[in-house]
Each structure stands twice: as structure tokens, then as C-alpha cells.
Amino acid sequence: MEVKLPSLRGLNAFEATARLGSMTAAAEATGTSQPVVSQRIRALEEHLGLSLFERSGNSLVLTPHGERFYHEVEHGLQVIHGACQEMYRLSGVYRPQVSIAAGSGFTHLCLLPLLPELKACFPQLRIHLVPVDRDDDASMQAADIAIRFGRQSASSGSQLLAEERVLPVCTPAYAERHGLQYINDADDLSRLTLLHQDERDPRWLDWKQWARAVAIWPIPDEDIFPFHNYPLVLNAALEGQGVALGWKFIVEKHLASGKLMGVGPEVARAHYGYWIELKYPDNALVQPVKDWLVSALNDERE
After folding, report:
1. By C-alpha distance, which of 60, 111, 109 is closest to 230?
2. Long-range contacts of range 16-21, CB-CB < 8 Å, 24 or more positions apart?
3. Which Pfam families does the UniProt record give (predicted)?
4. Which residues on neighbouring strands pair with residue 160, listed in sequence order?
């Protein structure tokens, strides 16, 4: 007897909800609304005759049946997604899109310069860069390739791009103007304009955390000048407006060229760094793009 299959939209809604942990996030990732996602999942449960989620208030947890079904469906949708993209590529009628999401600073300072070469290497694809402000942004969850900063992801497919190494940087001219050779104590800091990103995000090391790590304390709060994003922080440092915390992976080129110089101890937090992962690890169309990015970003540092 032929088994009637459930709706593909219902399967997509279920997979996104199970992967992202909420129907609201799934709705954002799939370009629909939360009530639509809820309706599709209920229809899927009615079709299967089983509850896939345990619902308690705002909490949503997979049932044992749901866990088993998710692992099977996730793999199946990956295969279907990859097969369709490959057929689009072979047909030449439609170029599949590969989205790459990363923090705004990383996108503008590291990915954007590589974009022309990346497009030239993969002319059969449409490459879409997605700058995001927060790691839990739905755009980050929905991207084919995600580059995250912070502690190692729980995802087994997460690959380390670079460990976190942070040091104070400024222009040689700024250092000379302020008689700065090396930051050794709080008195040295009190003479400087400290530049920092004005974002309450615990992933990022700030001046107080840096000072605590190198046993310098206290830091006058009024001497820290905030910016809305890291490209603005770095630009201000390059223009000689103050001293910024520089993530080595981002500022290595400027240090090598002499535009910036290190003026304090380097801090490295265990298990922190830049991590790259695929939304669907078995996607044969996206994997080569990820491999190219890893190679190109490492070449940029050498």
C-alpha cells in the first residue's frame, strides 16, 4: 500500500522549529509567520498520529518520537535541498544562492574584500553576505554558512578559524604624541582615549576584562569612547583617535604594514575564537565554498 507523505512545508516547519528551538525563530528563518508554522506542525502531527513536541507555556521540547523523527527528516531535507541545488546548477536556468552570515565587523573587514575572488571561483552560484549584529539573529540561524565569534559551538560540525588573541593597538603617531611605549598600569591608561564597541554582548572582551586579565585595575569609565560597531572602532584607531582592542585575526594586516602597533599585553581566552559551520553539513554544493573560505582566510593571515 502506498503511504501518503506529509506536506513538505510541514516538514520544513518542523525541522526549522526543532533546530532553532522556537516557532518564532523558525518563522523568521522560513520567511513566514509563527501562527503559520504552528498550524503546519499541528497538521504534520495529525498526519503522523503522534505528538512531536511537548508544549508547556513558552517551552517547546521534542518528544522521544519527535527526536527520532527530527534526525531522519533533517538528513532527508539536506539531501533534497542539495539535489535541487545541483539540478539548478546543471540546468543553467537558475543559479543557487549561498548565504554567508557573520558579525558586521567580520563581514566588512574580512569577507567583503574576498567577495570578488569568491564570486570568480564559483560563477555558478549567487553569493550573498549577511552581516548580523547578534549571534542569535535569525539570519545567522538561516544562513548556509555561519561564521560565529565566541566559545566553541555545541555543533559537532563547527570548525575553528582562529583562536581569540586580543591586544591594545594604535597608530605609531598616536603613541608618539602621547609618549606611549607600552601599557603597564592604570596611569598609562588614564592618559589615553580608549576606543570600544558600544554593545552589551558578553562574548566580546572589553577594556575592563582586558585589564583584569593582565592585572591592571581600575580603568576610568569616562575615558572609554564607545562606537556602534567594530569597523568604526578600527577606523577611529587607524585615524589616530585613540587606542582600541584589536582582535589579531582582524588587525594582523594593519600590524604587518605598520599602520597599527601593539602597545600592551596580548590576552587569549580559552575556547574563544571564530568558528565556521554549515547549516546542512552534508550539502555538497555549499561545502566547497566553506573550504574555499577557510583556505582564503588563513592565506590572508600569512
Report:
1. 109
2. 17/41, 17/53, 17/60, 18/52, 18/62, 18/66, 18/70, 18/74, 19/70, 19/74, 19/141, 20/138, 20/141, 21/60
3. HTH_1, LysR_substrate
4. 275
pLDDT attached to residue 94:
72
Q: Convert the pLDDT of each residue in 127-147 to its tens digit.
A: 999 998 777 788 888 899 999
> Strands across the sheet with 166-170, in order?
224-227, 194-197, 243-247, 166-170, 261-262
CA atoms of 4 and 76, how far apart (whole Å)? 17
Q: Which domains does the chain have, with CATH numbers?
A: 8-89 (1.10.10.10), 95-163+272-301 (3.40.190.10), 166-262 (3.40.190.10)
Query: Cell match 566553541: residue?
Result: 152
Q: How far apart, in whole angstroms, are the C-alpha atoms of residue 139 and residue 133? A: 10
Contact 16, 23 (CB under 8 A): no
pLDDT, tens digit, 9 for 90 and up, residues 20-44: 888 888 888 888 888 999 999 999 9
Give the whole-angstrom CA distance, residue 65 versus residue 63: 5
pLDDT band (50, 70, 90) for residue 19: confident
